[in-house]
Amino acid sequence: MIVVIGAGPAGINAARAAAAAGAEVTLIDTAPAVGGQYHRQPVGADNAPGAADIAAEPKIHHLSESVVWAIEAVDDGHRIHVRTGQADGPGRQGRTVHADALVLATGAYDRALPFPGWDLPGVVTAGAAQAMAKGQGVAVGERVVVAGTGPFLLPVAQSLVNVGAEVVGVLEANRARGWLSAPKALLAGRGKLGELAGYVKLLARHRIPYRTGRTVVAAHGTDRVTEVTTAVIDGKWKVKPGSERRIPVDAVCVGFGFTPQLELALSARCRLVDGFVEVDAAQATSVPGVFAAGELTGIGGADLAAAEGTVAGTAAAAHAGHESTQRKGVLRAVRRGRVFAQGLDKAYPVRPGWQSWLTDETLVCRCEEVSLGALRTSLDHYQALGVRSLKLTSRVGLGLCQGRVCGRAAAELAAGITGGTYDPAATAKRPLAAPLRLSELAEKEESK
Amino acid sequence: MKITLDGEPTPVQPGQTVAAALLAAGRVSWRDTRDGGKPRGLFCGIGVCFDCLVVVNGVPDVRACQRVVADGDDVRAQRGAELPEARP
């Protein structure tokens, strides 16, 4: 049995490729329908690319509305612990699935940077705005500003317009010159120019200002956001004094790139490189029988994820003893996609000057309500010299999200304040990969 | 199809999430924090941040952005840290 975790572009193709090679596949995903975040479907639709193949292939068992909460290494593979049913409901059914080979395709989520007021209702991630608009047909606000960095801000603005929101501006923190340092990447991504032209037209038609080198540095309001401060930022992302403007809005969408969903890969003890799962040309991780595909191995978008998924599924089938050969065209697509991904990384970096946007009152950890001031106290008084002691002395990252939102920011802030080393990936160690109710843990599990 | 939001009967579409139903009803926050009592609502929208928690049918800590509505669901705001209602 090959287990594929995550049914986005990478997971869908991994399942298809492994099944095509003759393997039995279990495809596990939290959503009711396949597609993942990228091919998000409106309510009731199931038309993501590849969805029909998944449904028609008897070798693929799709476990929808299912969350993997732990991975255990066993002699001949991995034991995958799953709960199926309504999200966070008490009636979920528990089961374990044995994996002879495992493909991790858990994807990534928006990286949010803390700034004064980011915890006010109405401030959401770009991904939240996208999920609500594309998946649910609801706008997160009537008068919305979109800010952050990266090409994802554009489809978000489009989705907001489509559900009737007024987008008062798209603020790209970086300036366009990043691409000039990566001409090869630009060439590798030329297939995306048509999509880009569509966004340019949309912005013009709706008179939406697109500004580079400017971002949202504060949100204001008492029980919800009513205004934001935007400012020009320099090459290091420090605010240019005097450039601040206040704009009335009722929603703010922020996205500063993406953070890979690493906990299952870390549970399986996969080696990381630069914060992503290290893979070889066959998408094999450092752990035999464990493969990774998509944003987990580097942020490169849906096309690259899909190609990596095909390679990973093929390789996983071979590992499980099926005859399968990699297709040259797919391997080439992966190589081309990686060049584009490196260009993205160069063109849309996050610069450390964001740390100067915070005040001592600004929350770093939203769950445990740990402010920057509290983080400083912990660093000064208790000499928290690593991520673990930082968590234990300040409670940063110990809340329900388990550091998914704040972990990286907290590690970078601590490093900035002390000059020490705080490994952001160390905040992603979560042996329980999803919250469970005690009654669920106490239940006897059914094996499959 | 109908659910109640803090006691208010609200029509919903099958497949809609609780968060979408709340937003469509004009709500921007539906939880307050354990320490500061600060209002919270949607943040990440994809099940990662656990900020949009609500109480559904007496069970707290349910992510509104992930939970799909069921006919007759009783959804209410979550006040700080809540314990589940005792079940027989």
Give the helix/strand layout.
The complex is a heterodimer of chains A (448) and B (88).
Chain A: E1 2-5, H1 9-20, E2 25-28, H2 51-56, E3 60-63, E4 66-74, E5 77-84, E6 93-99, E7 101-104, E8 108-110, E9 123-125, H3 126-136, E10 143-149, H4 153-162, E11 166-172, H5 183-188, H6 193-205, E12 210-212, E13 214-220, E14 227-232, E15 245-248, E16 251-256, E17 258-260, H7 263-267, E18 272-273, E19 276-277, E20 290-292, H8 302-319, H9 328-347, E21 363-365, E22 370-371, H10 372-382, H11 387-394, H12 407-418, H13 438-442, E23 446-447
Parallel strand pairs in A: 1-2, 1-7, 2-3, 6-23, 7-20, 9-16, 10-11, 10-16, 11-12
Antiparallel strand pairs in A: 4-5, 5-6, 8-17, 13-14, 14-15, 18-19, 21-22
Helix pairs in contact in A: 1-8, 3-4, 4-6, 8-9, 10-12
Chain B: E1 2-5, E2 8-11, H1 18-24, E3 31-32, E4 39-40, E5 53-56, E6 59-63, E7 74-79
Parallel strand pairs in B: 1-7, 3-7
Antiparallel strand pairs in B: 1-2, 3-4, 5-6, 5-7
How many domain modules of chain B? 1
* Fraction in beta strands of chain B: 25-35%
Strand line-up across the major sheet of chain A: 3-2-1-7-20
Mean pLDDT of chain A: 94
Tell me, briefly, the overall form of chain B: globular
Report the sheet-strand fraction of chain A: 15-25%
Separation of the first and last Cα atoms of chain B = 28 Å
Counted by DSSP, the helix tally of chain A is 13
CATH topology of chain B: Ubiquitin-like (UB roll)
What structural class do the secondary elements of chain B suggest? mainly beta
When the domains of chain A are counted, the total is 3
Q: Biggest interface pair, residues each?
A: A-B, 46 and 42 residues
Shape-level CATH architecture of the largest domain in chain A: 3-Layer(bba) Sandwich
Radius of gyration of chain B: 12 Å
The average pLDDT score of chain B comes to 94
| First-last Cα distance of chain A | 11 Å
Q: Compute the number of strand runs of chain B.
A: 7
| Percent in helix of chain A | 25-40%
Q: Major sheet of chain B: size, sense and barrel closure? A: 7 strands, mixed
